[in-house]
Amino acid sequence: MCKVAIVILNWNGRKMLSEYLPTVIEYSKQEATVIVADNASTDDSLALLEERFPEVVRIPLEKNWGFADGYNKALATIDAEYFVLLNSDIEVTHHWLTPLIEYMDNHPEVAACQPKLLSIFNRDSFEYAGACGGFIDYYGYPYCRGRVMDTVETDEGQYDYVQELLWATGACMMIRSKDYFSVDGLDGRFFAHNEEIDMCWRLRLRGRKIVCIPDSQVYHVGGGTLPKDNPFKTYLNFRNNLTMLYKNLPEKDLRKVMRMRWLLDYVAAWKFLLLERHVGDFKAVYRARRDFKRWLPEYKAVREEIQRTALTTDIPERTRFSILWQYYFRGRKKFSDL
Q1: Which parts of 35-119 fold into alpha helices (H)?
Q2: SS3 state at 238
């Protein structure tokens, strides 16, 4: 058993591996084993690893399982105390691992943590995909310290303190292996998007904690696999977010939230069509809601088990307000304004 396994899930990411894997190896090799799990890439990613990075452990998967099940398949073969789920487009920094390991060693109540996530293109700004740690509003909309909706803040040290979260970013997350497997890992049916939020929420329901450790910082490219304006990404975000809500919401909130989301989702769909002229995104929202409804019966037993094993239903990091109302109607664009 190794103490820390850094696991990079790769799919046709030769360029990212070539550019960012060297810093991962250089700044992590004293504290961790570096592993690349390959989701049946059709480029020469595996050849690159063999030729340029022979010290990296390779796990070739037989097909593209997506982000969620790709990690499930890979991590099931790794014996480590801590896993670090690391995107291939992350540039790490000197001693980035040390604060994460030390905090986890000293706080057994914490299941997972993340570093401060900054933009590789604007190094003074937070990065959209996780910034300085994630929360979720009453109706299921994620936001972060440092990123609310599309407003990304400049990092001025305003969040340089350890903070309990609802979710840590899947771009760079350290998680105890026993906690990962205690909730059966990421939901493989999600394929990608919202899967880390869902897993962290399930851990929080069991009384485990998630935190951000800003003494550690990394830089993220973001949007490498599915660009932001890709309709398939819109589809996955809407379908998976609705499924996550159905699984994890307490009974007292479920109907109210789902009724409001029905309205808000269709408002979003028509906004895509009428204001942004994004026909693909418009169709994606309708398809997401249709497919969510179709597979709902499959999740009934899953929901019942999650609710049965929950130790708490009131999680402070799931805030009681609407982030849409705060952002669009009250003009509160920053986390510190909420």
Answers
A1: 45-52, 66-75, 97-106
A2: helix
Q: Which two tokens stand for residue 71?
A: 């990690």
Distance CA 91, CA 172 (A): 10
Q: If we measure between CA atoms, which residue out of 163, 100, 80, 157 comes closest to residue 126?
A: 157
**293: pLDDT strictly greater than 70:** yes
C-alpha Rg value of the chain to the nearest Å: 19
The residue among 47, 155, 138, 28 whose CA lies nearest residue 92 is 28
User: For residues 47 and 13, what is the distance between their CA atoms, to the nearest angstrom?
Assistant: 12
Q: Please state the separation of Cα 207 from the chain's center in Å.
A: 19
Instruction: Tell me the two tokens of residue 328.
Output: 């669009």
- Can you tell me whether residue 214 is helix, strand or coil? strand
Residue 97: the pLDDT is 98
Q: At 255, which helix (H) or strand (E)?
A: helix 251-274
pLDDT at 211: 98
d(Cα 184, Cα 247) in Å, to the nearest integer? 14
Tokens of 272: 């895509």
DSSP letters spanning 131-189: TT-EEE-TTS-EEETTEETTEE-B-SSTT-S-EEESB--TTEEEEEHHHHHHTTSS-GG
Structure tokens at 324: 């849409």
**pLDDT tens-digit readout, 253-289:** 999 999 999 999 999 999 999 999 999 999 999 999 9
Higher pLDDT among residues 230 and 112, named by residue:
112
